[in-house]
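In response to reviewer comment 3 from the previous cycle, which asked for concrete evidence that the modeling workflow produces usable outputs, we include below a single protein chain processed end to end. The sequence was submitted unchanged, and the resulting structure tokens are shown without manual editing.
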Amino acid sequence: MKRHPFSAFTLIEMLVVIAIIAVLAAFAVPALTNALARGQMTGTMNNARQLYLAAFQMATDGATNSDPNLSWPGDDTALAGGSSLKDFCQKLVQNDYLKAGDLQKILNAPGANCTATADTATPPALSLTGTSALKVYKVREADPSNAIFAVSSNYIYNTVPAATGAPYGDKGFVVIRKGGDASTYRKNQSTVANYSNDASKFQGTIGRLTGDADGTLGTESGKILTQP
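The workflow returned the following structure tokens.
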């Protein structure tokens, strides 16, 4: 009987297969990376909602009991001097709307690592160190429901996110508004220029800053609780 010689790949054929795999990987990796980032942003959005719910409940209780120290950050008389994220979060912890362990989860995201600890004093003193994944605005009771309560820290209002911003760089950003609705957005939704320079349309999609009128875009200066 004749024996047929074993047929193997030639070097050229192997190089072609490797090149095809490399091309497929080049298309697949960015898609997988973007999908991962979108999933992580959804997690940050849910964390921001937890912070919002605690703040909303505290502000509601403050209004019910006429307590100015239990209010939205822009109305809190005790925050007027420092206006820091740490001081606002300490109010939430000391009044039992959140635990330090909750904040440890809420304020963290890929590339933004914040440590939240509380001592054993009564009431407990909160410590925040590192980089918070969320920026909280000095939203007030008088602000409309589409006023922004918090955003992921890589987003500056009406500015294209920088690739180096933490978390998520220019892959997207998170916004949660005073009315409680929250969304994730892409880089090409970040500025009024993406809405044909229609300020009202931009505000209707992203939200407005505290104190801004309809159709008027202000800046973040002085409207954010200072970061840790």
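Residues 14-205 form one domain. We consider this sufficient to address the reviewer's concern, and the full set will be provided in the supplementary archive.
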